[in-house]
Amino acid sequence: MVSYRPGNKEDFDQLYRTTYPRIFATLVMILKDRPAAEDATQEAFLRAFRAWKSWKEDAPAEAWMHRIALNVAFTKRRREQFQEVGMLVLRLGRPDDPDPTAGTHPDLRQELRALPPKQAAAIVLRHLHGYSNREIALTLGIPERTVASRLAAAKARLKVRLGDRVER
Amino acid sequence: MGTGGMDGFDEWLERELRQNASRNTGPNPLPSQSRYQAAPLQGNALSRFSFALAAMVSTKTVTALALSAAVIVAAGATTEAVITRSANPTDWGHQVVLQVQGCKDALAPGGHGVGACVSSFASQHGRQESKTHGTSSPSQHPNGGHPSGQPAGGPPSSHPHGGPPSSHSHGGPPSSHPSPGNAGGNSGNRGAGSNPGHVGKP
């Protein structure tokens, strides 16, 4: 396990190198596209760096980093939703533009983005990064029971929406 | 970070998420390319100093300082103009310099101090001013008359050198000195805008 010293610049650089791919992978599942995820990831590291001196060594740095990043992503999602409503009003009656980021398996990402961001975050932390419920609870600052209920609600919805694809 | 009790859906979910994530990962950017490199660490002494400096040199402070300086200069100029009866700043100190020089010249060899001589000049000057004001109408007085109700030509009761009340500076600097406490109202709002909180050890 890597040990970091709060307030140390070199250690923060190390934290950045170590956790950037995972933080970015989380945010790209929650936000609408790669540029948005990259922007949010950079913003999260900026905020974390400013608070780096106050990070407590007994807390896992990656979980702390994830928490900051998810807070940035939730704020960004709220803004995105406002913008989407505005765009929807503007193009009423016209067909949707195709999603340029859609790959061969766009459905899961689309469904994840359709979930409430906190449910999506729980799914990504649990099933992409392998966090336990306890670790997710610590990361998000919520009780474990809330994590369990969020995961259950999210999976129930995903099963309904993606069930036929899972069967294939 | 184990996951227990997985069913088929969970396995499919993990597989899909990992495939999706692997498609979306690019080259890991270097710390030198990151946005945080341009930001100071919170609590750094140097950054605190620079923030304080920036706050002090804020627009509000500069405006307040400039206004105060202008008021002080204007008040001094008004006082000098009233005393020397000249709007030309070069005349203001000239009379006093001449008098002091005269007093020095008149000083006996081995004598000390020109204070009494200069004081005498000031008293004479005060009496002259009082007479002038006594003969002029109250409306010509810079203050529009003597607020104390004394006769205009009366003795200048409380002035130490007998100078006229009009020689007092009535246009001193106002009480609107820039307060250091107001300098840079937004100086305390830097750093991590929202406390990201801490998480315990899992």
List the helices and strands and how they pair.
The complex is a heterodimer of chains A (168) and B (202).
Chain A: H1 9-30, H2 34-50, H3 61-90, H4 106-114, H5 117-127, H6 133-140, H7 144-167
Helix pairs in contact in A: 1-2, 1-3, 1-5, 2-3, 3-6, 5-7, 6-7
Chain B: H1 8-24, H2 45-56, H3 59-84, H4 89-92, H5 94-106, H6 115-135
Structural features:
heterodimer, A: 168 residues, mainly alpha, Butyryl-CoA Dehydrogenase, subunit A, domain 3, 72% helix, B: 202 residues, 6 helices, 46% helix, rod-shaped, disordered C terminus
Question: Please, could you describe this protein's structure?
Answer:
The complex is a heterodimer of chains A (168) and B (202). By secondary structure, chain A is an all-alpha fold. Chain A has a single domain (9-167), classed as Butyryl-CoA Dehydrogenase, subunit A, domain 3, CATH 1.20.140.160. In chain A, 72% of the residues lie in helices and 0% in strands. In chain A, helix 2 crosses helix 3 (61-90). The model of chain A has no long low-confidence stretch (mean pLDDT 86). Chain B has a domain at 59-144 and 154-172. Chain B is built from 6 helices and no strands. Chain B has helices at residues 8-24, 45-56, 59-84, 89-92, 94-106, 115-135. At the A-B interface, helix 1, helix 2, helix 3, helix 5 and helix 6 of A face helix 1 of B.
Brief summary:
The complex is a heterodimer of chains A (168) and B (202). Chain A has 168 residues and is an all-alpha fold. Chain A is built from 7 helices and no strands.
Class based on secondary structure composition and strand pairing of chain B: mainly alpha
Chain-averaged pLDDT of chain A: 86
Could you tell me the mean pLDDT of chain B?
Answer: 59
What is the CATH level 1 assignment of chain A? Mainly Alpha
Task: Kindly provide the radius of gyration of chain B, computed on alpha-carbon positions and rounded to a whole number of angstroms.
Answer: 37 Å
Low-confidence stretches of chain B: 138-202
Order of helices and strands of chain A: HHHHHHH
Q: Looking at this structure, what is the CATH superfamily of chain A?
A: PhyR, sigma-like (SL) domain
> What integer value in Å does the Rg of chain A equal?
17 Å
Distance between the termini of chain A: 40 Å
Distance between the termini of chain B: 10 Å
| Quaternary assembly | heterodimer
Low-confidence stretches of chain A: none
Morphology of chain A = globular
The largest interface is: A-B, 58 and 43 residues
Coarse structural class of chain A: mainly alpha
Query: Roughly what fraction of the amino acids of chain A lie in strands?
Result: under 5%
CATH-defined architecture of chain A: Up-down Bundle
Number of strands of chain A: 0
Strand content of chain B: under 5%
